[in-house]
Fold Cytidine deaminase.
Amino acid sequence: MPDLDPEDEKLVILARSTRARIQAAEGAAVRDTDGRTYAAATIDLPSLKLTAVQAAVAAAVSSGAEGLEAAAIVTAEPFVPEASMQAVRDMADDAPVLRADPAGEVQETVR
């Protein structure tokens, strides 16, 4: 992952390992404004469906995070789901969202 800030690289690694651990469709990680990180995978239950980013944002909020610095999503999809972008935007208007493929290669940064 050349040219990535080490903290953003950490987010991609956390998202990738979370996705791989349970073989989920997506893995995500977010960093709050205090520098703490939260990782989560897609939740697909009969009564609860969340994107990985939504789940990571929920973990951050439930831990007291007041804002986000950045987010990363690892997915085979060629885009960041709108629901994921909205969850990040609810916490920060300008936090970058890194989209990486399953190999961990960043494909785009959405702002």
About this structure: Strands lie at 26-32, 37-41, 43-44, 49-50, 68-75, 97-100, 106-110.
